[in-house]
Backbone:
């Protein structure tokens, strides 16, 4: 049970445990480390990437939230974004399908390419982009409609099904992929808002994959779920990673370790380190990454 | 080390004070509600107590002999002559016959027991049924409004009885023989305004109100909702939209009579629309209701959880689809409630309509948006200001009709909200 719970509580319990007191006390706090803009240790780049992101800056008004981040995201890989609260990982994630557009004061600079095409090009159609890059949010947010209508909504607006039977097939296969079909097949007409939190989140994932996106962005998808529901969603991510590119923001380091191929560590708007997940958690190259994963701050 | 016992003691002491405050606050609340309820109950008792008699009419049943000689007819078969005949004489003769104590000299006093419009009723009946000429028939007519007041308010100091002692005795006699009776006042609901309180009704005002409200609803709801959606969802945030927003809020606070002046200046003087018509009334009330609808609709849109919006945007719904499929259905209950409350306000509005001439004395029931009409609150205003006492109870009755309308509208608003509200 303990391994399932979120990292923050684990850190808290470990910090209070007496045997942890042997940790060396450093005079200089790791937070005070001066980071150089645009410098990332590890392996931020990949050959033939899905996303090619160069010198990405995000500003809220005049204050920068993301400072010159460069990163590649490969095809069909699962990348986890970790880092302390307010480090910009969610902001960065939301740049990938332009969910920040609705925030008036938010400006994005730099080069963001999806399959070699500029995401922030003035001529770029946001609707088309979001159909290709779907998103699952922190809080389960099903529409106050029936389960069926929730999943069918995306295919309907994009005109993916010509007949009712086609739509039925899409709904069934999406719900199956989300591991929800057996639980809801008899009550597809029931209100989605009446389901449990874990079911709602899996429904949201089904709704996202119903439009067959190439990339699924997940913004702390398990933060509102209990350990059992979290385990189900994680299994689902593992299955989806075979055919989708997945970028997941998480506060749980176990989760990052369990589901991702690569892990990116963010700190105060900087991308500090990117590497194979196993490497990040066993032999981090940057001292900040090490401090964070060993629970010295966060 | 903190002294836990003394700290607990401190908490306990402050608790007493806190509970006392809470009790006092609750008492204030109860007193406030009690005052409000008393005012409401007093208002209703007063209006219903004064007004229920307005829903009763007094009729007088007579054996009328349609005698051609009495009506000064040379040729009773000539419809032209029948039209011009004297119909008062047979009525007076019938009253005379019903009252053995009456003499030749009492003709005038007898005539004043019957409603002045009774003779035209008799004429219409006779023109329709020429075969009745020369026969004697039992017919019911409205009593004179003075008789009406006497029958309903005998002994009430607030009403001065305008009947002579002898007339009073006659009415008492007729009442004892059940020839003078009170019954449900259907006239009140089937006719327009009249100079004679016994003949006055609210149908004209109800139809006028209805026509005016239709114009207001058809214009104000779509315009208000569209403006709210644009301002909330599409408009850029800049100085201009801020300016518009401030001005919409200001408009909501403008006294309604100003809108009447605006209507007079623009719709009537500039556009040359006729006076006293529901069309202009509806336009003026639209202007008055718009800010209310826009403000409540914007509040309803704002209260749609951003998560729903994000969810729709996240699967690639366009701005329009987000608004039409998600924001609007969720905001609709709030929009409808706001609109119905705005409409209820407009229904009760008098001042702006006075300025565009809807205060005229109109007998005919309006048949279209460009027929002269009045509305319920203006009708109440007209009757309440009338010197004739019998109109006062008509005014109270009209207030009850107006209140019934308002309550129906509010009930509709609540029902719609309950029905359309989605929980999650």
Residues:
């Amino acid at each position: 049970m303990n391994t399932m719970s979120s990292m923050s509580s684990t850190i808290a319990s470990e910090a209070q445990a007496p045997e942890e007191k042997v940790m060396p006390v450093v005079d200089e706090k790791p937070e005070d480390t001066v980071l150089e803009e645009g410098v990332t240790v590890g392996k931020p780049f990949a050959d033939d990437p899905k996303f090619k992101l160069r010198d990405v800056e995000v500003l809220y008004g005049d204050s920068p939230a993301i400072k010159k981040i460069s990163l590649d995201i490969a095809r069909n890989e699962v990348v986890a974004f970790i880092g302390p609260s307010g480090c910009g990982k969610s902001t960065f994630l939301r740049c990938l399908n332009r969910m920040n557009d609705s925030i008036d004061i938010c400006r994005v600079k730099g080069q963001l390419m999806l399959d070699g095409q500029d995401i922030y090009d003035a001529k770029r159609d946001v609707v088309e982009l979001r159909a290709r890059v779907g998103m699952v949010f922190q809080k389960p947010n099903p529409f106050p409609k029936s389960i069926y209508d929730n999943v069918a909504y995306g295919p309907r607006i994009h005109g993916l099904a010509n007949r009712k039977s086609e739509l039925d097939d899409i709904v069934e296969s999406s719900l199956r992929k989300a591991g929800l079909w057996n639980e809801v097949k008899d009550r597809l007409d029931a209100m989605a808002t009446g389901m449990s939190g874990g079911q709602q989140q899996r429904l949201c994932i089904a709704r996202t994959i119903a439009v067959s996106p190439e990339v699924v962005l997940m913004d702390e998808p398990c933060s509102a779920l209990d350990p059992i529901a979290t385990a189900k969603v994680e299994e689902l991510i593992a299955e989806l990673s075979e055919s989708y590119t997945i970028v997941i923001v998480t506060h749980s380091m176990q989760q990052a370790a369990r589901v991702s191929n690569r892990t990116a560590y963010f700190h105060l708007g900087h991308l500090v380190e990117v590497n194979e997940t196993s490497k990040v958690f066993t032999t981090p190259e940057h001292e900040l990454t090490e401090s964070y994963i060993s629970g010295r701050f966060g | 080390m903190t002294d836990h016992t003394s700290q607990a003691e401190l908490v306990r002491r402050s608790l007493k004070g806190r509970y006392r405050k809470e009790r006092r606050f609750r008492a204030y609340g109860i007193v406030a509600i009690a005052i409000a309820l008393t005012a409401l109950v007093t208002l209703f008792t007063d209006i219903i107590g004064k007004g229920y008699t307005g829903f009763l009419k007094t009729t007088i049943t007579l054996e009328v002999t349609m005698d051609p000689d009495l009506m000064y007819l040379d040729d009773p078969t000539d419809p032209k002559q029948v039209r011009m005949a004297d119909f008062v004489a047979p009525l007076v003769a019938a009253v005379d016959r019903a009252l053995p104590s009456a003499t030749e000299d009492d003709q005038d006093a007898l005539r004043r027991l019957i409603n002045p419009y009774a003779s035209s009723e008799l004429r219409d009946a006779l023109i329709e049924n020429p075969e009745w000429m020369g026969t004697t028939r039992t017919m019911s007519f409205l009593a004179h409004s003075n008789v009406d007041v006497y029958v309903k308010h005998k002994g009430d100091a607030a009403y001065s009885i305008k009947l002579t002692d002898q007339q009073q005795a006659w009415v008492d006699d007729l009442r004892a023989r059940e020839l003078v009776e009170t019954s449900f006042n259907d006239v009140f609901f089937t006719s327009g305004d009249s100079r004679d309180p016994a003949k006055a009704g609210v149908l004209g005002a109800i139809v006028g109100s209805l026509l005016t409200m239709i114009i207001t609803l058809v214009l104000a709801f779509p315009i208000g909702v569209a403006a709210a959606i644009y301002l909330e969802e599409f408009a850029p945030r800049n100085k201009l939209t801020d300016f518009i927003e401030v001005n919409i809020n200001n408009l909501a606070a403008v006294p309604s009579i100003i809108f009447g002046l605006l209507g007079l200046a623009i719709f009537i003087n500039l556009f040359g629309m006729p006076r006293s018509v529901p069309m202009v009334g509806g336009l003026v009330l639209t202007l008055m209701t718009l800010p209310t609808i826009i403000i409540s609709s914007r509040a309803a849109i704002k209260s749609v959880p951003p998560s729903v919006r994000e969810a729709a945007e996240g699967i690639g719904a366009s701005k329009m689809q987000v608004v039409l499929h998600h924001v609007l259905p969720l905001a609709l209950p709030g929009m409808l409630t706001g609109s119905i409350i705005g409409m209820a306000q407009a229904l009760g509005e008098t001042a702006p309509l006075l300025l565009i001439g809807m205060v005229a004395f109109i007998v005919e029931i309006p048949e279209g948006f460009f027929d002269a009409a009045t509305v319920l609150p203006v009708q109440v205003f007209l009757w309440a200001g009338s010197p004739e006492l019998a109109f006062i109870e008509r005014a109270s009755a009209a207030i009850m009709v107006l209140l019934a309308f308002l309550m129906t509208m509010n009930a509709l608003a609540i029902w719609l909200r309950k029905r359309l509200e989605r929980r999650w």
Remarks:
- Residues 4-51 of chain B form the longest helix (48 residues).
- Chain B has a mean pLDDT of 89.
- The two ends of chain B are 49 Å apart (CA to CA).
